[in-house]
């Protein structure tokens, strides 16, 4: 099977697996226990926190480990808005956030918050003037993703941060798809808070982190949470965290080389699509994009059909959106970039990773050509 769905999840690297087993056997203690076995685990946790904070240019006192990107987004936003409720009830986000945030903001609307969903252009970027116009004295927080998980478009984070800072609005950014792929540095980006996840970068599933600038106040979503400085209750997954941080260090260390390699694969795929004259449109931003994600619209064919046919030929790709067999929902991102509902269902996402080769891409393109041809006949 050829795996071209690395943006959905990645296999664990050897190094991350080794770090996991080592920590799980040698540092198995509960990091909250006061005996030496607990203290050893707490020491490892402390080192992991320092190392991860360094990788994102942050202060270790603002880093909290969680069960992944979904929980990170939920807890970061809820904890910060709860502490700033006195300022007002207005929140800003975009039409193309990950489902974890989209559903959270929908829920918050039912709880009395007013939410502005910023539109995006045909490449998936927000409009800075629209952002600035949306800010009111009651705006508490804006949650704007670093990159979209379906089409890979990155947002002009520094420009966004400048505008939000000018008006004293807290800036949370979902960096789940970008951390380890392009630079994520809280100071350079000017963000107050971010979410990251381990399983997108060859670490274990069920582990992630939130960073909240220690100057930003937050109120825990949990009563009397004693772990993670009160941010999140529950025994801390120290082996998972040690493995996550190992994966993160590797991803950041090889970031530049890996970026160039993945971008080459992406450009190669696009040029071969054009050469073969496949009935496929390239989605996303021509310049501001992740190197590992390529969003495609397969004309006249539902994305789910294309995906299932690719699977039949031994290639794993994604439709980008959660769907049930035989019932494809239109991609929210596609609708937001201006597609009609039928067109929005024609979406597939190809995502490259550590082990992707040009031969695998050639095979994908041959299969796509066959599927399009079959459909015509
Ligand atoms: C942009 C983005 N945010 C959040 C998540 C959720 O992360 P996790 O799977 O770790 O809960 C994902 C995962 O697909 C994602 O792509």
Structural descriptors:
about 375 residues; Aspartate Aminotransferase, domain 2; 2 domains; seven-stranded mixed beta sheet; three-stranded antiparallel beta sheet; about 15% strand; binds pyridoxal-5'-phosphate; IscS subfamily cysteine desulfurase; pyridoxal phosphate
Your description of this structure?
It comes from Anoxybacteroides rupiense. This is IscS subfamily cysteine desulfurase. Residues 2-364 form the Aminotransferase class V domain. Keywords: Pyridoxal phosphate. This protein has helices spanning 14-26, 36-55, 69-83, 99-110, 128-134, 157-166, 186-189, 238-253, 255-275, 303-312, 332-336, 341-344, 358-376, and strands spanning 2-3, 63-66, 90-94, 114-118, 139-143, 170-174, 193-197, 208-212, 280-283, 293-298, 315-316, 347-351. It is of the alpha/beta class and 377 residues long. 41% of the residues lie in helices and 14% in strands. α1 (14-26) packs antiparallel against α8, α2 (36-55) packs parallel to α8 and α9 packs parallel to α13 (358-376). β3 (90-94), α4 and β4 (114-118) form a beta-alpha-beta unit. The mean pLDDT is 96. It folds into 2 domains: 2-8 and 256-376, Aspartate Aminotransferase, domain 1, CATH 3.90.1150.10; 14-253, 3-Layer(aba) Sandwich (Aspartate Aminotransferase, domain 2), CATH 3.40.640. 46% of the residues are buried. The two termini are 27 Å apart. The structure holds pyridoxal-5'-phosphate. The site of pyridoxal-5'-phosphate (PLP) has 14 residues, from α3.
């Amino acid at each position: 099977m050829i795996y071209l769905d690395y943006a959905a999840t990645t296999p664990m690297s050897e190094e991350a697996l080794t770090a996991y087993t080592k920590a799980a056997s040698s540092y198995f203690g509960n990091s909250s226990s006061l005996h030496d076995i607990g203290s050893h685990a707490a020491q490892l946790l402390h080192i992991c926190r320092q190392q991860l904070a360094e990788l994102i240019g942050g202060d270790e006192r603002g880093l909290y480990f969680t069960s992944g990107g979904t929980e990170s987004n939920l807890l970061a936003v809820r904890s910060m808005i709860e502490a700033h409720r006195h300022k007002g009830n207005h929140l800003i986000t975009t039409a193309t956030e990950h489902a974890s945030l989209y559903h959270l903001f929908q829920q918050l609307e039912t709880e009395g918050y007013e939410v502005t969903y910023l539109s995006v252009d045909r490449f998936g970027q927000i409009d800075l003037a629209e952002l600035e116009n949306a800010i009111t004295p009651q705006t508490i927080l804006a949650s704007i993703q670093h990159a979209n998980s379906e089409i890979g478009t990155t947002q002009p984070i520094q420009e966004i941060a400048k505008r939000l800072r000018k008006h004293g609005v807290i800036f949370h950014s979902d960096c789940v798809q970008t951390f380890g792929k392009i630079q994520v540095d809280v100071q350079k980006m000017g963000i107050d808070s971010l979410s990251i996840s381990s399983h997108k970068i060859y670490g274990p599933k069920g582990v992630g982190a939130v960073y909240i600038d220690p100057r930003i106040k937050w109120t825990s979503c949990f009563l009397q949470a004693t772990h993670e400085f009160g941010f999140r209750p529950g025994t801390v997954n120290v082996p998972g965290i040690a493995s996550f941080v190992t994966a993160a260090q590797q991803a950041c260390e090889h970031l530049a080389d890996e970026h160039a390699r993945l971008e080459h694969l992406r450009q190669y795929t696009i040029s071969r699509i054009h050469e073969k004259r496949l009935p496929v449109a390239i989605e996303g931003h021509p310049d501001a994009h992740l190197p590992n994600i390529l969003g495609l619209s397969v004309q006249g064919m539902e994305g789910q059909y294309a995906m299932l046919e690719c699977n039949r030929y031994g290639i794993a790709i994604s439709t980008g959106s959660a769907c049930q067999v035989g019932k494809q929902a239109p991609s929210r991102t596609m609708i937001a970039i201006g597609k009609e509902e039928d067109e929005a269902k024609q979406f597939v996402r190809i995502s490259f990773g550590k082990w992707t080769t040009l031969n695998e891409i050639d095979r994908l393109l041959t299969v796509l050509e066959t599927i399009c041809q079959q459909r015509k006949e």
